[in-house]
C-alpha cells in the first residue's frame, strides 16, 4: 500500500493548494455543490459557465502534476486527465434526462473534472484497498466501482467540503486494465453518438 499512500498524500496536498488558489481567482464565486442541482445547470447560463471556468482553471493549474508524480518514484503507472468539455456536457445531459430528472446534487455528477488513475502491477484486493483508505483517510470518500466488466476503486478528494469541486482517483489492478479500457471506450462511443445527435 506504500505507493497508494504516497500518491494519496501528494494528491491531498495538491488538491488543497489548487482549491485554495481557485477561491482567489476572479471567476470564482461560492457555490454549494450539494444544494445546487443538475437540473439548474441548463436553466442558469452562469452556472454552466462557472463549471466551464473551473475546468479551464484546472487545465492551466495541473500541468506540472504529471512531472511531480514522476518525482515520487512510483513503480506503478499513473495517468492524469482533465475531463473534456463534450464529456462534461454528456454527463450533465445523462443526469438531466435519466438520473432522477436532474434532481441530483452537482457534487454527485461533476465529481471528476480532474482525475487520476494508478494501475497496480502487483494485484491488491479491492476490498483491502478500500479498508486501508477508510482506516487511514476518514475525510476521503472511497467506493468499490464495479459496473459490468469494469472493476476499480474510486477515491474522491473534497467530499468533506460542499463548496469545492471534487477530484477523482481511480485505482485499477493491472489484470483489469484491458476490460476497464474497453468499458471506457464504450462510454466514449456513447457520448460521441450523443454529440452527433445533438448538433
Outline of the structure:
By secondary structure, the chain is α+β, with helices and mostly antiparallel strands.
Which features would summarize this protein structure in a list?
5 strands, 199 residues, 7 helices, single chain, alpha+beta, 18% strand, disordered C terminus
Could you characterize what this model shows?
The structure is a single chain. This protein is of the alpha+beta class and 199 residues long. The chain is built from seven helices and five strands; from the N terminus they run H-H-H-E-H-H-E-H-E-E-E-H. It has one domain. The chain has helices at residues 2-23, 45-61, 65-70, 85-97, 106-109, 126-136, 177-197; strands spanning 77-82, 114-120, 141-147, 150-157, 167-173. A five-stranded mixed sheet has the order 1-2-5-4-3. Helix 4 (85-97) crosses helix 7 (177-197).
Layout of helices and strands:
Blueprint: H1 2-23, H2 45-61, H3 65-70, E1 77-82, H4 85-97, H5 106-109, E2 114-120, H6 126-136, E3 141-147, E4 150-157, E5 167-173, H7 177-197
Helix pairs in contact: 4-7
The SSE string, one letter per element, is HHHEHHEHEEEH
Question: What would the principal axes of the Cα set say about the shape?
Answer: globular
> How many strands appear in the DSSP assignment?
5
Helix share, percent:
40-55%
Instruction: Give the N-to-C terminal Cα separation.
Output: 46 Å
Estimated structural class: alpha+beta
Number of helices in the DSSP assignment: 7
Main sheet attributes: strand count, strand direction, barrel closure: 5 strands, mixed
Q: Report the C-alpha radius of gyration, rounded.
A: 17 Å
* Number of structural domains: 1
Instruction: List unreliable stretches of 5+ residues.
Output: 190-199
Strand order of the largest sheet: 1-2-5-4-3
Mean pLDDT: 90
Percentage of residues in strands: 15-25%
Amino acid at each position: 500500500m506504500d505507493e497508494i499512500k504516497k500518491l494519496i498524500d501528494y494528491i491531498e496536498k495538491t488538491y488543497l493548494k489548487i482549491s485554495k488558489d481557485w477561491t482567489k481567482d476572479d471567476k470564482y464565486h461560492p457555490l454549494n455543490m450539494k444544494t445546487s442541482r443538475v437540473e439548474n445547470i441548463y436553466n442558469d447560463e452562469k452556472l454552466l459557465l462557472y463549471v466551464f471556468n473551473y475546468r479551464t482553471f484546472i487545465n492551466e493549474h495541473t500541468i506540472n502534476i504529471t512531472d511531480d508524480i514522476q518525482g515520487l518514484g512510483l513503480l506503478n503507472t499513473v495517468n492524469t486527465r482533465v475531463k473534456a468539455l463534450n464529456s462534461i456536457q454528456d454527463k450533465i445531459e445523462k443526469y438531466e434526462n435519466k438520473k432522477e430528472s436532474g434532481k441530483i446534487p452537482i457534487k454527485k455528477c461533476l465529481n471528476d473534472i480532474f482525475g487520476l488513475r494508478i494501475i497496480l502491477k502487483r494485484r491488491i484486493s479491492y476490498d483491502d484497498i478500500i479498508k486501508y483508505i477508510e482506516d487511514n483517510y476518514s475525510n476521503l470518500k472511497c467506493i468499490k466501482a464495479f459496473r459490468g466488466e469494469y472493476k476499480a476503486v474510486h477515491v474522491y478528494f473534497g467530499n468533506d467540503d460542499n463548496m469545492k469541486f471534487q477530484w477523482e482517483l481511480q485505482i485499477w489492478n493491472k489484470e483489469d486494465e484491458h476490460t476497464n479500457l474497453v468499458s471506457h471506450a464504450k462510454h466514449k462511443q456513447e457520448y460521441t453518438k450523443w454529440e452527433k445527435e445533438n448538433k
